[in-house]
Amino acid sequence: MDIKIDDIVKTVISVANARIRETEDKTPAIQTAAAEVPVHQASSSKIAVLAEPGAYQFETVNIPPLKEDEILVRISGSVLTSEDAGEFLKESKAMTRRPCGFQGTGVIVKTGKSGLLDAEKKVLHEGDRVIRLRRSEAVYSYYAGNRQGKPLDSWFAEYIIIKAGNDVLAVNELKQESRLLAGQFTAVSSAMERACQGGRRLTKDSRVVVAGCTFIGYITMAVLKTMGIRPLVIGGDDESRHMAEGFGAGDMVNYRAAGGVDAVVQKVRRYFSGDLADTVFYCAESDMGLTFARRLGVKNALLCDLGSSLGKVKSASRFGTDSIVSGTHNYSLADYKKAITILENAETEGLPVYRLITHRYRLDELNEALWTYVRGEGLGIAVLNR
Fold first, then answer.
1. Are 303 and 280 in contact, with CB atoms under 8 Å apart?
2. Distances from the Cα of 222 to the Cαs of 210, 248, 347, 351, in angstroms?
3. Number of other CB atoms surrounding residue 266 within 10 Å
4. How far, in Å, are 29, 35, 74 from residue 38 at the CA level?
5. Which one of 44, 173, 321, 375 counts the least CB within 10 Å of its CB?
6. Residue 100: pLDDT band by 50, 70, 90 thresholds?
């Protein structure tokens, strides 16, 4: 019997997610009695405290009363970003609480009052699965040297308090992996859209090359696939071929085995029936290949350096200043809605979004997860509450 390993992995993860969702659904978030104010079951939360650079410890803090415009979210998990790594290593040298990742998702267990709305003006309910938008208020780590401020404003905890309204979005329709990666997809898809402004539009007839089988590269392939575009992918090893094809690549060229730049250019011409690409998305983590990428397109081709547009996923120098969701970009509600639609379409088309998260850790394994990120291993690294 022919059984594909990828199918087995997908089945196992699907079953695990179903159990996680079942657990979330059965979480007794509220104990309600007649004429009583609803009280959430948990009175305290475990939270990660940065005791020193490179070492989180855990403390238990009391959950404070909610303000009327706040919601209490039981955290399902978060995906690490370079902001998290920068705070973990304390590269800023400032011994204060610093903004960290914006990639968390969770389930509402209590609201400050009924009728609170999310960014789309939808009423929020207990049990809704939500993500936080990169809009205004930051999410902070909890540094032991400065304990001022709200204690429950970090994703590295069991619970987080978030202000309702423009900073939160209910995404009940998405699977957990998609919710975890919503921020990453928003960053990539909005950068692609910005690059294609000025009269350039991607269509099914566009000749597109994606250079780089990286985290950004696979997300770019997935976005293109939902648009009906099957790009030619340039990668560095044949092991990436199966992954690239799963995310919609029409074919992949191994530039290391092709026999030089001229040979790669010829393969591009063959793929596009004698022509070169009209759009090249450069997704490698090194700037050294940009000159090579330019040769893959026609003279007036659009070359979009997503590495520079978004910031390197894993910087070789400073994690704190190079981040896929950091820097000058705050994303609009429209950006998030487009990304969520892309993720919904990706799920419908069977793209293996779950494979973008290559490492999964429990909350109490946070230090190990962050060192894995710092070493540059894998693609997405998730810290989950289990």
1. yes
2. 11, 6, 10, 7
3. 14
4. 9, 9, 16
5. 375
6. low
Q: Positive or negative, the Cα torsion across 104, 105, 109, 115?
A: positive
Per-residue confidence band for 386, with pLDDT thresholds at 50, 70 and 90: confident
Same domain membership, residue 170 and residue 191: no
Per-residue confidence (pLDDT) for residue 143, from 0 to 100: 47
Residue 209 is part of which domain span? Answer: 185-310
The phi, psi pair for 281, rounded to 5°, reads -100, 115
Q: What are phi and psi of 117, to 5 degrees?
A: -115, 155
CA distance 234 to 227: 20
Average pLDDT score, the chain: 77
Beta bridge partners of 105: 77, 131
Same domain, 375 and 304: no
The four Cα atoms 124, 125, 129, 135 give a dihedral, to 10 degrees, of 20
Nearest CA-CA partner of 362 in 168, 77, 139, 38: 77
Residue 18 banded pLDDT, cuts 50, 70, 90: low
Shared domain for 89 and 67, answered yes or no, is: yes
Characterize 314-340 residue by residue with b for buried, 16 or more Cβ atoms within 10 angstroms of its Cβ, and e for exposed. bbeeebbbbbbbbeebebeeebbebbb
How far is the C-alpha of 264 from the C-alpha of 337, rounded, in Å? 37
> Could you tell me the pLDDT band of residue 92, with boundaries at 50, 70 and 90?
low
Dump pLDDT digits (tens) for 188-218. 888 888 777 766 778 888 899 998 888 889 9
Locate 101 and state its tokens.
């990742």
Is there a contact between 225 and 248 (Cβ–Cβ < 8 Å)? yes
Inter-CA distances, 239 with 70, 344, 350, Å? 47, 27, 20
48 and 149 in a common domain: yes
Q: Mean pLDDT over residues 67-92, rounded?
A: 82
Residues 30 and 162 reside in one and the same domain:
yes
What pLDDT is stored for residue 326 in this prediction?
37
Residue 220's pLDDT is what?
A: 93
**DSSP E strands, the chain:** 30-31, 39-40, 44-52, 55-62, 70-79, 105-111, 129-132, 159-163, 168-170, 208-211, 232-235, 251-254, 277-282, 297-305, 357-362, 380-384
Instruction: For residue 95, name the pLDDT band (cuts at 50, 70, 90).
Output: low
Q: Report the distance separating Cα 199 and Cα 219, nearest Å.
A: 24
Domain-located, residue 338: no
